[in-house]
Design a protein that fits this description.
single chain, alpha+beta, PmbA/TldD fold, 6-stranded antiparallel β-sheet, 5-stranded mixed β-barrel, 9 helices
C-alpha cells in the first residue's frame, strides 16, 4: 500500500480510511504502546468570492490529515501527518511513540472508558454534497451582490459575496476496538455591502449556512437582507453613558452562551479558572431557563454521533429550571475532576436554549427603553472573574420601538450577574450555528458612550 487514498478523485470510501486507522493502531501495538487512538479525515471544497461583479478569489480545497496518539502506561505522545503513504504513516506512529517515551506520566491520561463508547452510529442526515461548479458558484455570488447593490442608491460599495461548499469524511478508532466514521457537508452564502450617507459610511452583512444546499436562503434574499441591515445603520449616533436593559439579537446572543459553556468546561474547572466553580446543582440562571445539548438533531450544524474520543453523544440537560445540572467534560478533564466524560471531547454539539413566548418586536415592547445589540467587538471577557466589557453597536429603543442606530459604545457587566438577571428568551430563533438561540433580554447593564 503506497498511496491509500486518492483524494484527487473526491472523498474516499469510509472503508479506506478505516483501513488506514487499523494500520496505525496495529503499528502502535507493534511498537509497544499499551493503548492508541487515531483519527483520519479527508475534506474537499470550493469557495468563490465576487466583488463588484468580478471574481476576487476562487479556491478549490483538498485537505487530508492523520493524527495518532499513543500511550505507554500513563505516558502520552502525539504526532500528525498529511501524507497517507504507508512509509509516512509508520514514521508518524514512530514519532508519537518516541515522544511518549520521553514524557512524564500523568495518571489522568488514557483512552475513554470503553463502557462509554458509541455502540451504534445513528444516521444524522449530515451529508448532502452539492455538485456546484465554479461557473455556477460565481453566478450565485454575482446575483447575491447585484441584488444588494441595487437595493438603494445609498448602497455605496461592496465587500463582496461569498459562496462555499465543503464535504468531508472522518474516521476515528482506538485500541478498545472502536472504529467508526461519518461524512458531513456544509454550504454557505454571504454578502457584505457598504452604505453612505452625508459622508459617513456603515457596513453590514447577512449569511445563510446549512448541511444541504436546498436549505440555504436564496441569493436574492441574502443580498436584500445585507442591504437592509446596512441601510438601517446609517446615521448612527453615540450615546451618553447610562444604565439600561440590553437586548442581544440572536446572531450575537450565542456569544453569551459560549461564555457560559467556557465557564463550565472541564479545562477551566480543573484549572480553577472559572467564575462558575463549584456551582453544580446551584441556580445560575432564572428558573425559566432550560439549556439542552442536542447532538442528534437531523442536519444540525453541530450534530455528531460520537465525540472526538468515540464517546457516544446524547441529548442531555445542562441547565434545568435555571439550575446547572452538568459540566462539559472530556475523558481527561473528567478524570481530573473525579467525574465521568459527558461526551464533549471537542466541545458541545447543538446547544439549545428553550425559547419563550415573545418575538423580537414583543421583546422590544417588554424592554420599553434600552439598547439592542447587533454587533460586538473586542475580547474583553474574563472567564475567571466573569468581568465582561465589549465594544458594541446596534439601536436605541424608546417606547418599545427602535428609535435610531448607535455606534462606538461599550457594554459592561459581570457574566454571573448577567446570567442571573436574564429577563426573557425570544422565539426569534437563529439556527445558523452550533448554539441555537433567540434574542436574549438582560436587565440593566452599564453602557459607556460619550
Amino acid at each position: 500500500m503506497t498511496e491509500a487514498v486518492p483524494v484527487q478523485a473526491g472523498l474516499p470510501a469510509k472503508e479506506q480510511l478505516q483501513e488506514l486507522v487499523s494500520l496505525v493502531l496495529a503499528e502502535a501495538k507493534k511498537q509497544g504502546a499499551s493503548a492508541a487512538e487515531a483519527g483520519v479525515s479527508v475534506d474537499t471544497g470550493l469557495s468563490v468570492n465576487v466583488r463588484q461583479g468580478e471574481v476576487d478569489t476562487l479556491e478549490h480545497q483538498r485537505d487530508r490529515s492523520l493524527g495518532v496518539t499513543v500511550y505507554f502506561g500513563k505516558q502520552k505522545g502525539s504526532a500528525s501527518s498529511s501524507d497517507f503513504r504507508k512509509d509516512s504513516i509508520l514514521e508518524t506512529v514512530q514519532a508519537a511513540c518516541a515522544i511518549a517515551r520521553q514524557t512524564s506520566a500523568d495518571p489522568c491520561q488514557g483512552l475513554a472508558d470503553p463502557a462509554l463508547l458509541a455502540q451504534e452510529i445513528p444516521d444524522l442526515d449530515l451529508y448532502h454534497p452539492w455538485a456546484l461548479g465554479a461557473e455556477e458558484a460565481i453566478g450565485i455570488a454575482r446575483e447575491c451582490e447585484a441584488v444588494a447593490l441595487a437595493a438603494d442608491p445609498r448602497i455605496y460599495n461592496s465587500d463582496g459575496a461569498d459562496v462555499s461548499t465543503h464535504r468531508g469524511l472522518r474516521v476515528y478508532g482506538n485500541s478498545h476496538g472502536f472504529l467508526a466514521g461519518y461524512a458531513a457537508s456544509r454550504h454557505s452564502l454571504s454578502c457584505m455591502v457598504v452604505g453612505k450617507q452625508n459622508e459617513t459610511m456603515q457596513r453590514d452583512y447577512w449569511y445563510s449556512t446549512a448541511r444541504a444546499a436546498e436549505d440555504l436562503d436564496g441569493a436574492a434574499n441574502v443580498g436584500r437582507l445585507a442591504a437592509e441591515r446596512t441601510l438601517r445603520r446609517l446615521g448612527a449616533r453615540r450615546l451618553a453613558t447610562t444604565k439600561a436593559p440590553v437586548l442581544y439579537a440572536p446572531e450575537v446572543a450565542r456569544s453569551l452562551l459560549s461564555h457560559f459553556i467556557a465557564a463550565i468546561s472541564g479545562g477551566a474547572l480543573y484549572r480553577k479558572a472559572s467564575f462558575l466553580l463549584d456551582q453544580l446543582d446551584q441556580p445560575v440562571f432564572p428558573d425559566f431557563v432550560h439549556l439542552e445539548e442536542q447532538p442528534h438533531r437531523l442536519r444540525g450544524l453541530g450534530s455528531a454521533p460520537f465525540d472526538g474520543e468515540g464517546v457516544a453523544t446524547r441529548q442531555r440537560s445542562l441547565v434545568e429550571a435555571g439550575v446547572l445540572r452538568s459540566y462539559v467534560l472530556s475523558s481527561y478533564s473528567a478524570r481530573r475532576l473525579g467525574m465521568q466524560s459527558t461526551g464533549n471531547a471537542g466541545g458541545v454539539r447543538n446547544l439549545v436554549i428553550r425559547p419563550g413566548a415573545l418575538d423580537f418586536e414583543g421583546l422590544l415592547r417588554e424592554m420599553g427603553r434600552g439598547l439592542v445589540v447587533t454587533e460586538l467587538m473586542g475580547q474583553g471577557v474574563n472567564t475567571i472573574t466573569g468581568d465582561y466589557s465589549r465594544g458594541a453597536s446596534g439601536f436605541w429603543v424608546e417606547n418599545g420601538e427602535i428609535a435610531y442606530p448607535v455606534e462606538e459604545i461599550t457594554i459592561a457587566g459581570n457574566l454571573r450577574q448577567m446570567f442571573q438577571r436574564l429577563v426573557a428568551v425570544g422565539r426569534d430563533v437563529d439556527e445558523r450555528g452550533n448554539i441555537i438561540t433567540g434574542s436574549l433580554l438582560l436587565d440593566d447593564m452599564t453602557i459607556a458612550g460619550e
